[in-house]
Each structure stands twice: as structure tokens, then as C-alpha cells.
Write a structure and sequence with these properties.
186 residues, alpha+beta, 2 helices, 19% helix, 30% strand
């Protein structure tokens, strides 16, 4: 699959921290993130936003869901408000047609950096993965563990830890919040 039909699911776990110490309106911030991510994926060449969605939880256990299927309709969040939360854990999933998983990851990281520069929140990338067709990413010799999904290659990266195995290519991850990644970024 190439071009407009390409779809490579991307997921990431983030920790968002407001610069003022507590989120006044966490659902507005998350909807803003989804809408900016949608605009940026379209600008990067996405032919269609299949679904941008997330599950969000505060340290106190309050949770809500966010969803964007169309920029025209905008993002919606439903669930507990989580007002006053000192941080949010966000499990974000993107299904975008026309971009590879690595392209969606690059757009996601650029969106997070922009929102941090705007003073919306600081962020840490705790875990990211893309599912790419095997033909696009052949494992190197000696790569002998089972990913548990026929026809897909899973890239998992834990924040602040070395990879359990090397895939022979560098994704150049930026872990936000001024943190250096594990590939030698400064």
C-alpha cells in the first residue's frame, strides 16, 4: 500500500504537565491537542483522518476520552473533568491515511513541541509504537523474538531506558520537556 491508501496505526503514551501547576480545563487542552494534531497531519499530506482518539487519566483517577474524526466537526471529550490535576497521562492513538507511522510520529512530536512553546503544557514521551507492514521494515539478522502480530513489525520505545534490542534504524525520537533521548540527541 502506498500513497493515499497507506494507513499505519500509531500510538503513544504521554505525560502532560501544566506550567501553572494544575490544569484548569484539561478537556479543553486535550481537545486542542487533538485538533492541532489533525491540522498538522493534513498539512503533512494525510488524505483522511480515520480517527485520533485518546484515553486520559489524572493522578487522582479521574478519566475521560477524547476523539477527533473530522476537523470540521472538531474534537470532543467526554468523561470526568479532571480539573485541578497536576498532570495527565494520555494514551493517544492515530489512524491517519496517507502517512506512515514514522511520519505520524514526527507530526505528533512537532505538535507537542509547539504546544509546549506556547506554554500549554510540558510533556514526556513514555512509550510510542508504530505498526508498519513487514516489507517496509525488515528485522536484522538475529532479531528472533515473536512480535505476536503476523505481517506487522512493532517498534516500542520506553522513556529513559535503552532498547531491549536494536532494529538497525534510528527513529531520532525527541522525548520533549528538554529531555535527551536514548539515541544521543542533545
Amino acid at each position: 500500500m502506498t500513497g493515499r491508501e497507506l494507513i499505519a496505526p500509531y500510538s503513544v503514551r504521554l505525560r502532560l504537565v501544566p506550567p501553572q501547576g494544575a490544569f484548569a480545563e484539561p478537556q479543553e487542552d486535550v481537545c486542542g491537542l487533538l485538533e492541532e494534531l489533525g491540522r498538522r497531519t493534513e498539512a503533512a499530506g494525510a488524505s483522511l483522518i480515520g480517527h485520533l482518539k485518546c484515553y486520559v487519566e489524572s493522578p487522582g483517577g479521574e478519566s475521560f476520552h477524547g476523539s477527533l474524526t473530522s476537523l470540521r466537526a472538531g474534537a470532543r471529550c467526554r468523561g470526568e473533568r479532571a480539573q485541578g490535576a497536576a498532570s495527565l497521562t494520555v494514551d493517544l492513538t492515530a489512524l491517519v491515511y496517507g502517512l506512515s507511522g514514522d511520519e505520524v510520529e514526527a507530526v505528533t512530536l512537532a505538535t507537542l513541541r509547539q504546544m509546549q512553546e506556547q506554554g500549554r503544557f510540558e510533556w514526556e514521551l513514555n512509550h510510542a509504537s508504530t505498526l508498519e507492514p513487514e516489507a517496509a521494515c525488515e528485522p536484522p539478522a538475529g532479531h528472533d523474538h515473536d512480535h505476536g502480530q503476523e505481517g506487522h513489525h512493532h517498534h516500542a520505545h520506553e522513556h529513559g531506558q535503552e532498547h531491549g534490542h536494536e532494529h538497525g534504524h534510528d527513529h531520532g525520537h525527541d522525548h520533549g520537556g528538554g529531555h535527551a533521548g536514548h539515541h544521543g540527541e542533545a
